[in-house]
Amino acid sequence: MTRLPWGLxxxxxxxxxxxxxxxxxxxxxxxxxxxxPGDFVALSAVDPTIIQEIRYFTPHDFVGARVxxxxxxxxxxxxxxxxxxxxxxxxxxxxxxxxxxxxCYRPQRAVDHFVRxxxxxxxxxxxxxxxxxxxxxxxxxxxxxxAKSGHSRGSTMDLTIVRLPVRPTHPxxxxxxxxxxxxPQDERFPDNSVDMGTGFDCFDTLAHxxxxxxxxxxxxxxxxxxxxxxxxxxxxxxEEWWHFTYxxxxxxxxxFDFPVSQASLTGRN
Length: 269
What we know:
Layout: H1 6-29, E1 40-42, H2 43-46, E2 51-52, E3 76-78, H3 79-94, E4 97-103, H4 108-119, H5 127-130, E5 156-163, H6 216-230, E6 234-236, E7 243-246
Parallel strand pairs: 2-4
Antiparallel strand pairs: 1-3, 4-5, 5-7, 6-7
């Protein structure tokens, strides 16, 4: 066995020690992902019949990309909210409809992503569909973007109604021509939802639930969704026909940041 010179052995020992310290430091810096409290559930475990089209997992949203924190296309809610949604679904199924959720629990990192996007005035790739009549400099002042969202508390969801039998939704192709979200239903992005007068996430006053310009079948569809949910303890956000919060909220003052994924729901204390 060949012995290394003392000087070289010293250098090797020092390098090994440095690598050990660096690895230990990296391990110490690695912070485990937050997990959901035990009373958060996957909606599919409570009611697998509710359609899930989680838009922020896809590039078909006002950002134009998958949003931070959406690891899987799934709806996560507090158990009371999910159970109340199940009761609403049973009522609608008897009338020939089904619910479809676009978004449920939303981690704070996703909200932070929205804020960064809103401040980047050069990024207006999706303006033609989601905010054609709103100057991007107005998104904060007009209330379309905020630093906190009720979705992060776990009992708020964005949803619509689909008539049975369910027709598939035409897939979004990035780069395709954009049509204003308030265009007639046969012109705007094809969604298998009933006609609500605008598409989901439409930054426009026409999306206000009771906007007087929305009449006829469109208004009836909005009122069907609103009355069904409100009779079961949900409260609608007046500026968004799709936005509902189940009350009382288990976490009225807590904004969570665990990722939207099955892993966030497993291995919890």
